[in-house]
Every structure is written in C-alpha cells, then in structure tokens.
Amino acid sequence: MFEISTFFSGVALGFLLYISIGVIRNGSKRRPLPPGPKGLPLVGNLSHLPPPGVFEAHHWLKFKDLYGPISSITVMGQTIIIINNWKLASQLLDKRSAKHSSRPKIMMAGEMVGWENSLGFSPYNDRFRTHRKNMARIIGSKRAAAKYDRLQETEVAHFLLHVLDDPERFMDHIRKEAGSVILKIAYGYTAEPSKEDILIKMAGQAMDDVTAAGVPGAFLVDILPLLRYVPDWVPGANFKRLAKKWSSELDDLTEKPYAFVKHQHASGKQDNSFVSRLLEVGDSTEEARFTTKWSALSLYAAGADTTVSSISLFFLAMILCPDVQKKAQEEIDGVIGNERLPNCSDRQSLPYVNAIVKEVLRWHPVAPMGLPHTSTVDDVFEGYFVPKDALIMPNIWYFAHDPEVHHEPMRFNPERFLSTDGNQPEQDPHMYTFGFGRRVCPGRVLADNALFLNIAQSLAVLHIRKDENGAQPELLFTPGMISHPEPFKAAITPRSPHHEQLIRSLEQECPWEQSDSHIIENMQRQAS
Fold first, then answer.
1. φ and ψ at residue 463, rounded to 5 degrees
2. Binding of heme: at which residues (predicted)?
C-alpha cells in the first residue's frame, strides 16, 4: 500500500512541476500567442481538443471563425498552433522550414509503440536526414521513380483482373494492390496473387494501429507523459496494453521483410528493391541496419494506406459524378483508343484525367491535418509568439476547401484545374497535400504515378456505378491521421465485351508471379 501511495504522490508531484514549468515559461513571453479560447488552471485547454470520433479538421476549422486564420491553445503547458490558411502555413512551414521542421514527441505512437524511428515521426536530426537521403536517391525524382513504372503498371493490371472476377470486393482488391506495389518496391517481395498475404495483413494491422495512435491528444499519455509509468494493472491503463500489442506488431513489420531480403541475398537472389539498393552501400554497422529497416518501413507507411484512401475516393467520386466519368472516358478513347491501356507516358496527353487526379487529392486530402510540425527555436510570426517546442497543425482539409481559393469546394469538379473559357486553373493541391518544407513527402512522385495509373486504366475499361439497388453512397469519412471514405458499395462492370477481353489479355502481358509468402512462413517456423 505504501508503494502505491508513494507512486501516485510522485505522479502528482511530477504533474504539478510539469504544469508549473509550462505556466512560468508561457508567462515570460514578450509577445502574445495567437488568439484562442481561455483555458482552465493547470489543464489549460484540455476540453478544447477534438472529442473521440470527431473529424479533426472540422473541429479545428471552428477556430478560424472564432479567432482567425491562426489560433492557439495550450494544454498542460504544451502550446498548439492551428493554421487555417494555406498562405500562412506556407510562409511558416515552407519559408521558415529551418525553424519549424521537427516533430513532437507523440508519446503513444512515437515512443511507446515505436513509430518515432520512422521518417514521418522522427525529429529533425541526423537519422531523419539519413532517411530522406535514402529515399531521395532511390525514389525522390521523376527519373528515379520512372524505374518502377512497369512494376506499378503490372500491379494495376492485376487489380483490374481481380475486379473483373470479383467486383463486389473492389475495396479488398485496392488494399491488395497498394500493399503489393509497395512491398515489391521496398523489399522485392511478391505478394499472394489471390488469397490473403501474410505481409499485407501484417502491414495493414500496423497501419490501423498508427492511424489510431498517431493523432495528437488521442491518448491522455500524449498530454501527460508521466502516465507511461503507471502500472499495467491500474484501472484506466489499457493504453499500456494496447501500446505493447501495437509495438510487437510494428516490430514484426520492421524485422520480417528485412530478414526476407537478407535471406534472398544469401540465396544469391538480388533485385532492384529499395532495401537491396541500400544494402549495396553496406549494413556493417548496427546504425546502418537500423536506418535501412526503418527507411524501408517508412516508405511502406507513407505509400500503402494513403494510396488506398485516394483510390477508394476516386471510385466514390465516379459513382457520384457519372458525367465526369463519361467525359474522362471520351478523352481516353480519343487519345489512346480501345486497343491498349494508358500508361505514364500518356499523362501529358490526357489533361482531363490528370485533372481528376488533382481533384481526388483536393476533394478529401488523405491526411486532413497532416502530421504536426514542431518548432526548434522561439519565433515571431504575424506578430504572434511561436515558442520553441510548439506543435504547429496545418488544416490541410480546409486549404482544399477554402472558398476564396476553390470555387464550390464541396463539388467534385476536375475542370477547376483546366484553362477553359479564359479561366485560370485553381491552386494545384500538390502544393499542400504532400506536406510542407523539409517534411514534404519524399515519395510523392511515386504516389502520384500510382494514382494516375489506377485512375486512367480503371476509366479506360470499367464502368463504375451505384450498386444494383441504385443506392446513393453517403459522403462520409473516418477520423484519424489517415482518413478514408466510410465503406460503400458499387456496381463495377467492363465497359463492353471488347474491354473485358482487353482486361483478360493483361494476364498474358503481366503474368502472375509465384508468391514469396512461403519464404516468410518458413522463416517464422524456423524462428519458433
């Protein structure tokens, strides 16, 4: 009993010291913080964080009407700055990126689960720069990403074949394709062509975990880090059991694909995968092995779940906007014809399809609030104080729906990005959907190519309509770090018997390869 009371006394004392330091520090500022709601003693604006299950971008947008385009709250001594204006976000996060490019320590997802080792959650340090350098060298330019065009085209072909055979499970096929592409690029791993794949399942679970854990403030331990020392058996400490489970799942995803590549190399089988190319430089030190594993995992984390969200959003948009689908198909038929599928080299010849890609990115950004930036020094911006260690949260969803930038922002309208009737195209969403400054997504070219191929080739051969009951799907989205459309149904059929044969012919052009899943399974048996 003594130990328990002593423990909680220590927690309480630490809590008061933590808050007191924050209050004293905030009270010493010369300039005011951006405006925001008044907080309570000690806990500050804890009650102003988004409630569970609420779409975070909509919650923070309310602050714009109340306090202006830049606002702030303070929660237990932690300053959080919310930006609801793209120009201000760009000025702070692009032009002053040297000061505002780090990441906060998100206790649950970062330290307790382990995602702090990945590129997305890493602070701005030497390890972060190594991750960026690895990605820039292998996938960071159009020329580098083009080496994977054929691989991406093959996986889109397999996706179309799956949809043709089992259209009702199109969402499962989207997830399989996205996972297969990234696993092949990152590790040279060939996924199961039809049944559930062991690595795709493993990766999907880890992505679900980080989406739940990665929202700042989603767990109380993010706000009060001392709670991480609460014993597992204490009521309310379920977050610790979750963290252990999620950490174990993340360890599997970090180690097993890397071990697969090493196994292949030992067997004399090398390829052009991301990890193989890093291993050419060498992994003789523990740090080199560590960064190789986490660079590869960062590539998967950045590409798989976001691609699933974007492609499923495209299918939803085509159901709701059949006129857009028809116009795109007319463009493809006129430029490409009916004897082959569009590829990356056709992109400049398909301006309307390219505009659909942009509108998918804009209509519902996959990371509506991005990942928060952290300031590494004190700064003054727009007359307001931005303290060192402040969290800066750009409302990317609102940048895409600002009526002063995008006309009728809730409407899916690709023509907003075309020069028609003397109108200037609206702002390109690539300027904000892939992040800012030194935190911009290094795999954005690869991701953009994947989105174009899926959209162009699906439009070329498929009709996408409401389900057999004619039910209009609702435009609903999940909250979380990565946001997806809520599940919906669709009726997907070939555009004609000729288009069906064109899809069937892909099986000869892009034959299925034997899966590598048996190698992973054998390695697991040997390790157990």
1. -100, 130
2. 441
Contact 363, 412 (CB under 8 A): yes
Q: pTM (2 decimals)?
A: 0.91
Which two tokens mark 389? 């260690």
List residues forming the annotated binding site. Answer: 441
Q: To 10 degrees, what angle do helices 286-320 and 322-335 make?
A: 110
What is the C-alpha to C-alpha distance for residues 148 and 156, in angstroms, rounded to an integer? Answer: 12
Token code pair at residue 133: 């350098």
Closest by Cα among 368, 339, 344, 370 to 357:
344
Classify the C-alpha dihedral 303-306-307-308 as positive or negative. positive
What's at 481, amino acid-wise? Answer: M
User: Any idea which residue has 């099986």 for tokens?
Assistant: 507
Locate the domains of the chain by residue range.
31-527
Q: Is 453 helix (H, G, I), strand (E, B) or coil?
A: helix
Output the CA angle 496-499-505, nearest 5 degrees. 145
Query: Helices in 142-169 by DSSP H: which ranges?
Result: 142-145, 149-165
Point out the annotated binding site for heme: 441
DSSP states of 458-513: HHHHEEEE--TT-PPPP--B--SSS--BPP---EEEESSHHHHHHHHHHHHHSPPP
Mean pLDDT in runs of 10 for the chain (528 residues)?
A: 35 43 49 96 93 94 98 95 98 97 93 94 93 89 92 97 97 95 95 93 90 81 90 89 95 95 90 90 83 92 89 98 98 97 96 99 97 96 97 98 97 95 91 96 94 98 94 92 95 98 96 93 84
